[in-house]
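Marked as duplicate of an earlier ticket. Keeping the data here for the record.
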Amino acid sequence: MIDIDAAARELEILWSLPGRDCRLRLLGQSDTGLTAIIHTPAQRFFLKWMRDGDPLEAEQDGLIRLAPVVRVPGWRYLGPLAGGQALILEWLELGQSLSAGQWWQLGQLLRRLHSVSSDQFGYHRDNWIGGSRQYNTPSPDWATFFVNQRLAPQWRRACQRGLPAAEAGQVEAVMAMAMDWLAEVTVTPSLVHGDLWSGNLGTLTDGTLVLFDPAVYYGHGEVDLAMLELFGVVPEECHRGYGIDPHDPAVVQRKTLYNLYHLLNHFVLFGSGYLNAITRSCRTLLSY
């Protein structure tokens, strides 16, 4: 793992700082990397460090793509540091939980984000959803893209990680039916955050909404709204701001389908605690 003191010395040289003018304080770590606060005399920064830099390169790419439309952390440095790779971002002071008015503003913000369009679904590079590679080979058809590059890779990974045969068969059946379900909706390739759970959004102290840790691609804008509800209830103000009826049966069906992708990914990354949620989602979808 990283030597904190050695990393600080390297940053002092990189940024032409006097010795002992850069300090790092560890925030968290895992088997693959860590996060830390960088303190300098002038300001603070947020450090992400990993042995493998591709997820960091993908994150920087996503932040650059989102920045013209939504507030995201600015980046200061991407490159080698202390035997690994580092992404250094501006440090943002965050405010409290979103108010009802801010949830409405989030809906408006997502509508603006999703108005940025492309001629195909996917992206110019693969990126990462958590610790799993996310495939983005462009496709002109949303149903084909979502089934073949979202559900199918996670289904295969989940089977390798021990997804029971019954659940594996249910997911396979959902994938077969999803082609017809998604063919019934007209979808324009829209720029999406891609990993928009509640932990990846916040407010600055002045009330400005800010988004973090993207896994961007061009897809159906509803994937962002769906993931917001994966781990909690989203106030209706958000849906009103976006201009969508969250009770529309077709919207509810697609939300369950789109979140199956994330549930499979969580099973792959974190294990059997997500098995019941996968089972419930499949049963619900197969009942349509």
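See parent ticket for discussion. The chain has two domains: 4-90, 100-286.
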